[in-house]
Design brief:
With 363 residues, the chain is an all-alpha fold. It has a domain of 153 residues. Helix 3 runs antiparallel to helix 4 and helix 8 runs antiparallel to helix 9. The longest helix is centred in the N-terminal third of the chain and has 60 residues.
């Protein structure tokens, strides 16, 4: 009975949390980003404290240093990036038209290679894809307004997020002590173990995967710009920053890059192959070097579950939901694994006799 009451209480708290997030979804963006920034910078503040800085001075030094770096990078690169992104959006319809003309030019070879029936199916699929792409481009400004990326929202976010991060960092130790005092004394050790797992998973998401995302964006943008691909900086940043969605960043960047390369470099197939090689090479580096070193097994989330979380929370909370999806999926994954462990230790799974034997067999 006590276990059932606990389950009902936790489910009720979860429902209340989702309801509160949904009600206040319109104002959550600076608080979510500020909390993520505070979580990311807390180890640096702790390190300065070990060097005999006070908590307040450590917070000021770390936050001002990070803001100085961000503002410097903003004024150095954002005008160029914004110009390229606007130019890419304006140029995309012409790229689509050029690709259609190339397809018409190559249609005899395609018919000979695939056969008339399959070639017609391919042409129909490409036409559908073109219509969807043009429709997306046409509705993009409205979508940005819908998710809250308006000028006022961006200004409010840039002002409020650092303030939220400052006060959270300043009182981080007090918040941790307060949460620790609220834990039920009978199960404190077990709950703290779950919280440690969640902290490890969140560190993998925010610190580890965030580092991989930035490295992806830097490599793609640099490599595509070096080989002279039109709008290579913008396409590389899009591919890198969308890499938090499994396979989407890679597929989106590769598709855009190959489409631009076909128009720009055709019939120089070596340059088109070089563009594809950049993505394949970095996917190998990311999967075999970056993820094992920076993320490891701390997240341990199935890609299907990750995509579901992104779509579900994005539909519920908009842009804020997309930001919350990955850490919430990481937390849910930890809780599900804990629930499975407890289920396999229960009489419901083992039966009364087997559970007694199992407990006696434990050292």
């Amino acid at each position: 009975m006590a276990l059932r009451n606990q389950v009902f209480i936790w489910i009720g708290l979860l429902i209340a949390l989702v309801l509160v997030l949904w009600i206040f979804r319109g104002i959550l963006l600076p608080f979510v980003v500020g909390a993520a920034l505070a979580y990311l910078l807390n180890p640096l503040v702790n390190q300065l404290q070990k060097w005999r800085f006070s908590r307040a001075w450590a917070t000021v030094v770390v936050l001002l240093s990070v803001l100085t770096i961000v503002v410097s990078l903003f004024f150095m690169f954002v005008p160029l990036i914004g110009q390229q992104i606007i130019g890419l959006i304006q140029r995309l319809p012409r790229y689509v038209t050029d690709l259609q003309q190339l397809a018409v030019t190559w249609s005899p070879e395609i018919n000979e290679w695939l056969g008339p029936e399959r070639a017609a199916q391919l042409q129909s699929s490409l036409n559908d894809l073109v219509r969807q792409a043009l429709g997306f481009i046409a509705t993009l400004p409205a979508e940005l307004v819908n998710i809250g990326l308006t000028g006022a929202a961006v200004v409010g976010f840039t002002v409020l997020a650092p303030v939220v991060a400052f006060y959270l960092l300043l009182d981080w130790e007090g918040m941790v002590r307060g949460i620790d005092d609220l834990l039920p004394k009978q199960h404190k050790g077990e709950v703290k173990g779950i919280l440690r797992e969640i902290d490890k998973s969140m560190a993998g998401v925010i610190r580890g995967q965030g580092s991989v995302l930035l490295l992806d964006a830097a490599f793609y943008a640099t490599a595509l710009s070096v080989i002279g691909l039109n709008y290579g900086l913008a396409v590389g940043l899009i591919a890198g920053l969308f890499s938090f969605v499994p396979f989407v960043g890679f597929a989106l960047g590769l598709g855009l890059s190959l489409g631009i390369a076909l128009v720009q470099f055709s019939p120089n197939w070596w340059m088109i192959a070089l563009v594809a090689g950049i993505y394949l090479f970095w996917q190998f580096i990311e999967g075999n070097v970056l993820y094992p070193k920076l993320v490891g097994s701390s997240i341990n989330i199935n890609p299907v579950w990750m995509m579901f979380a992104l779509l579900a929370l994005g539909a519920l909370f908009g842009f804020v939901g997309l930001l919350l999806a990955v850490p919430m999926a990481a937390i849910a994954s930890v809780l599900v694994r804990y629930g499975v462990r407890k289920y396999k230790e229960s009489t419901l799974y083992l039966g009364p006799r087997n559970r007694i034997l199992d407990e006696n067999a434990k050292p």
